[in-house]
Amino acid sequence: MQHRFRGFFAICAVIAALSAVHSADRPDDDAWTVVGASGPVHGRAAYARSHQWARVRDGDSLAPLTAIRTGSRGEAVLVAGGRTLGVGPDSELELPALDGDDRTAEALQDRGTIDYEIAATGAPGLDVVTPYLVAAADGATFRVTILGGASVVDVFEGTVVVTSRLDGASAMLGAGEGATVDVETATGLD
User: Fold this and answer.
1) Could you tell me whether strands 126-129 and 105-118 are parallel, antiparallel, or unpaired per DSSP bridges?
2) What is the mean pLDDT of each run of 10 residues along the chain (190 residues)?
């Protein structure tokens, strides 16, 4: 009898882990909607009781501050508040909180390639924080790639202010421009 209850509790633990990403324990109502997901895409909710990774699927609603991780063949597109994030393979980031005040939201990108599209709606912008640089945008389309010890920003539309976390140097980039910060060569903003 005790063996059957262990199995039941194991199944309950798995269900709780899978539902952790979709937790109702959200700090606010600014959820991110998954409008496309293919391959291995997983999330881990910051405010859920369980911090295990769970599968993310099309149509899922994710709380702000949820960590997203894609595998080598995984991709996802998420939308919220005039912002679209295209998460490429082998990427990881923490979704920004999009509260209604004048504060700029922060996306914490740890690895991989992510395309950011920020609508020029008058809403607060978005700061993408990587280990090596910060890319700040209001109304822009750009890509941030982390390769080993370097972060690269490529701007497709609008303007993005890039600041090196190595030396504090900063530059405003327009469409067709890019910047790199490389810690392996100790190159600040290039």
Assistant:
1) parallel
2) 41 38 45 95 82 92 93 96 93 84 79 93 82 92 93 95 90 94 72
Encoded tokens for 170: 């900063």
Helix, strand, coil in percent for the chain, rounding step 5 = 10, 45, 40
Two tokens, residue 182: 């490389």
Give me the residue label for tokens 């700090």.
27
Cβ neighbours for 187, distance < 8 A, ≥ 6 positions apart: 180, 181
Whose tokens are 């909180």? That residue is 97
Torsions phi, psi for 157 (to 5 deg): -155, 140
Q: Which of 152, 24, 30, 149 is nearest to 160 (CA)?
A: 152
What the block records as the tokens of 15 is 């269900």
